[in-house]
């Protein structure tokens, strides 16, 4: 579903991502761990088409991101560290706006159902986004992804700053989406969350993918030790 | 291209809920109301003065005639003023133009005309310094600032706060997403302009006729030009602060610097020494005749009016016929430079209109003044009509002067009435075309820049 072949991004002499080779299948959650500047967000941005690769290719569902940047938008949804959407609109209006932009026409009841599935409390549906907590915003982001019927979900440190309960709820939703066949690539600093939610975990350092581990083959403590040793 | 009504509705709602729209629209409407009030005040005051002219003229003539009893018409005719007026068109309240600096009532005597054309009341220089905040000022200078406030952060703000990434990843078509945002702002700008324009029609009592439609057309196309200009700037894909700085700089250049430079250029390109020359020639042409033999002076007069040759003009003493012939000589000797003066003023106007082809701000202002008949050309038409009236007055009184008729033997109020120039619908095609062409060019440029900076893949700001 998601594939990087020798994917490289350079800024002058600085290499932000160096020859990344990676494949993520349907229903898989791949967590990218690494320090700031390791290349996690660069990888996400290259798959999103926000950056032009210096070398190599990123493909989604077999479609080249660089060649068909608009085509690949049909398949993916994106949730950044903080979901920034329109603060003057309510949660349900934001969901309607972004799902309509994506070409979906939902009734108000369907929109409310989508927000519920993302875990948002019903009393928040009609509140303006300016009054939402970070966790509530992330849930609206998830609802947008569900509304788009996205086959690929790209997450950039989505649980950063969330309280443990909200973070746990968020993880459960990701697992549900993966179980429905969504391929998920998640950049995160949270080793324990990665261990809990991911199928595979990659550790990055200075633009290189240093190691890839099956999450089931390693304990949280071992993962932490490996991480600290790698970075 | 699909029009998604839900997206448009929510885009509109999101935009309207921002404080900029409300504050900007309220400020503009308040300025607009003051502009309507100011335009009405200035023109109503002028019309009131013009309305009082017939009574003033009547009383003035009665006093002169009463004073001249027992004297000849030739003596009495030296004193009366004959009033002329340049009534304001119904659209002058919208665009005062040059009506505040040019005289709208001129009173002329039977003496040489040229000096009298420029002999007007002094205008309060402080008023001139401040300028007129009329409806045209609101549309030409202030409305573009509201457009800038609406447009400077259209995409850049969303790029800066991260919303744009969500839009990019959600949109079926990024072109449609951008067009939706631009369309909403254009529609709101259009609605505000319509509201303001209709308010001006009601407040200023503009007739529902073709000139009013032409004013609407000019203001609408002009505001569309500013919208396009803003689109060009935002299509560069820079930050909100960069966009705001560039747009305000463009406003300062187009609205203040360019017109100032253009004015200096026009004045230097077409100097008008004839303005002073005409007055001097006319004055010298008349005064030197006092010391010259009367015959040459009279011959010049007889060449124009041979019917008075039969009336004797003594060489050794003063006579009214000779006196008015001297005045006529003054005009004759300055006629050439006077004609040149008008020609040069026409040339200046033509050059200004050519320069306006490069600046829609000047073009729009000129068009509004032209439609309102408050421009220089309209004033020149008025001056020419005053010269015609002066000739009619002279020719009415010449027979009584040469026949040496007593003052009380003629009807002083039977002189030819002054006919003010009627409304003149100048062509506005060139100015309109200039605004349309600049807007069309701007649309092409912004389309290409949007393709380059937003549609094709490239490193996204803050990615």
Topology:
The complex is a heterodimer of chains A (231) and B (463).
Chain A: E1 2-11, E2 14-24, E3 29-34, H1 40-48, E4 55-60, E5 63-64, E6 76-79, H2 91-101, H3 108-117, H4 134-147, E7 152-156, H5 164-179, E8 183-188, H6 191-197, E9 200-205, E10 208-214, H7 220-230
Parallel strand pairs in A: 3-8, 3-9, 6-7, 7-8
Antiparallel strand pairs in A: 1-2, 1-4, 4-5, 9-10
Helix pairs in contact in A: 2-3, 2-4, 3-4, 4-5, 6-7
Chain B: H1 5-17, H2 19-67, H3 73-76, E1 82-85, E2 105-108, H4 114-117, H5 125-130, H6 135-151, H7 156-161, H8 163-170, H9 174-203, H10 210-234, H11 240-269, H12 274-287, H13 294-304, H14 320-356, H15 360-372, H16 376-402, H17 429-455
Antiparallel strand pairs in B: 1-2
Helix pairs in contact in B: 1-9, 2-6, 2-9, 6-9, 6-10, 6-11, 6-15, 9-10, 10-11, 10-15, 10-17, 11-14, 12-14, 13-14, 14-15, 14-16, 15-17
* Amount of helix of chain A: 25-40%
Greatest contact between two chains:
A-B, 36 and 28 residues
Number of strands of chain A: 10
| Oligomerization | heterodimer
N to C succession of SSEs of chain B: HHHEEHHHHHHHHHHHHHH
**CATH class placement of the largest domain in chain A:** Alpha Beta
Mean pLDDT of chain B: 90
- Domains counted in the coordinates of chain B: how many? 1
Structural class, from secondary structure content of chain A?
A: alpha/beta
Unreliable sequence segments of chain B? none
Features:
heterodimer; A: 231 residues; alpha/beta; Rossmann fold; 6-stranded mixed β-sheet; 4-stranded antiparallel β-sheet; 7 helices; 10 strands; globular; B: 463 residues; mainly alpha; two-stranded antiparallel ribbon; 2% strand; elongated
Summarize the structure.
The complex is a heterodimer of chains A (231) and B (463). With 231 residues, chain A is an alpha/beta fold. Chain A is 34% helix and 27% strand.
